[in-house]
């Protein structure tokens, strides 16, 4: 079983990429389990025609009528896999971890607990997926979201980023989390996916960043109206536009991610290096806004 965790800044396109990678791998003969690790519980929508599924945390709360922090009611509680595992496109197994009520508890800790409950329920033994994909919420801003790195719950991490500074800043923080735990059995970095977002499309900044931290770019995803249109219908481009160039790009990327064994412990940029990179990005953005300075 190959376990892959997608990380990145909130809104960078992790769910879009993770769902399309899942769809591509399912077409390639893999039995895939997609686990959404965002309290919004939205990453599996593209695999189920925009239909929601009950999250692990929601099922627990309903079964045990508890509004407590998820940490407080896990012990002695169980779930049945049939309550939280639902079939999506091409047989992909869809799970949403969910999270605690807003303002109560740690969502990152809730992810770890949800996955632990899945293990205890025998879900992985029952369904025997070849590939498990985790779509993890945003930046590492607390210990909770770093727990799955610390516990080595995935075999490799793929970081999604664009060329804007905030995305690279978040990617650098994630690299800090990976470095902190990789030497003691935690998950290592596979590489970066360059996902074009916003007004600045300049892969050179991401290439520079990847080289400095000692990693690589695994693949790139360009802007595509087909992606946005597919998501309106709760589908991946693999399903809606199977013969398109963008679908083929996702298929190649899926193979590269699964086959990649060149994992590294990243060397995060210092504050000074990040500041210098930010200045370069701002200067390039100014050029774009002024038509190349003309």
What does this structure look like?
- The protein is of the alpha/beta class.
- The chain contains 13 helices and eight strands.
- An eight-stranded mixed sheet has the order 3-4-2-5-1-6-7-8, sandwiched between helices.
Count of folded domains:
1
**Largest beta sheet: strand ordering:** 3-4-2-5-1-6-7-8
CATH architecture assignment name: 3-Layer(aba) Sandwich
CATH superfamily: P-loop containing nucleotide triphosphate hydrolases
Question: What is the structural class?
Answer: alpha/beta
Radius of gyration: 19 Å
| The CATH top-level class label | Alpha Beta
Topology:
Blueprint: E1 2-8, H1 14-27, E2 32-37, H2 56-64, H3 70-73, H4 81-84, E3 86-87, E4 93-96, H5 107-121, H6 123-127, E5 131-136, H7 143-150, E6 156-161, H8 165-182, E7 188-195, H9 203-213, E8 217-221, H10 225-232, H11 237-240, H12 245-259, H13 271-289
Parallel strand pairs: 1-5, 1-6, 2-4, 2-5, 6-7, 7-8
Antiparallel strand pairs: 3-4
Helix pairs in contact: 1-12, 5-7
């Amino acid at each position: 079983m190959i376990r892959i965790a997608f990380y990145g800044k909130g809104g960078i396109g992790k769910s879009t990429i993770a769902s399309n990678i899942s769809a591509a791998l399912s077409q390639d003969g893999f039995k895939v389990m997609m686990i959404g690790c965002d309290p919004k519980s939205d990453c599996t929508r593209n695999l189920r025609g925009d239909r929601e599924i009950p999250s692990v945390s929601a099922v627990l709360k309903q079964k045990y009528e508890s509004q407590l922090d998820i940490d407080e009611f896990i012990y002695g509680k169980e779930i049945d896999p049939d309550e939280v595992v639902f079939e999506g496109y091409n047989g992909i197994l869809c799970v949403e971890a969910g999270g605690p009520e807003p303002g109560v508890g740690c969502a990152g800790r809730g992810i770890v607990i949800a996955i632990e409950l899945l293990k205890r329920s025998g879900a992985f033994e029952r369904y025997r997926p070849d590939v498990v994909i985790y779509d993890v919420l945003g930046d590492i801003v607390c210990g909770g979201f770093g727990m799955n790195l610390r516990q080595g719950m995935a075999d490799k991490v793929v970081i999604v980023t664009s060329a804007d500074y905030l995305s690279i800043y978040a990617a650098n923080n994630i690299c800090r989390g990976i470095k902190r735990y990789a030497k003691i059995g935690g998950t290592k970095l596979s590489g970066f996916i360059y996902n074009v977002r916003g007004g600045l499309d300049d892969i050179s900044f991401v290439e520079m960043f990847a080289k400095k931290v000692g990693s690589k770019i695994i693949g790139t995803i360009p802007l595509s109206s087909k992606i946005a249109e597919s998501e309106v219908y709760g589908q991946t481009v693999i399903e809606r536009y199977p013969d398109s160039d963008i679908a083929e790009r996702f298929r190649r990327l899926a193979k590269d991610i699964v086959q990649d064994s060149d994992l590294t412990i990243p060397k995060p940029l210092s504050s000074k290096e990040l500041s210098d990179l930010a200045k370069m990005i701002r200067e390039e953005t100014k050029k774009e806004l002024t038509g190349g300075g003309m």
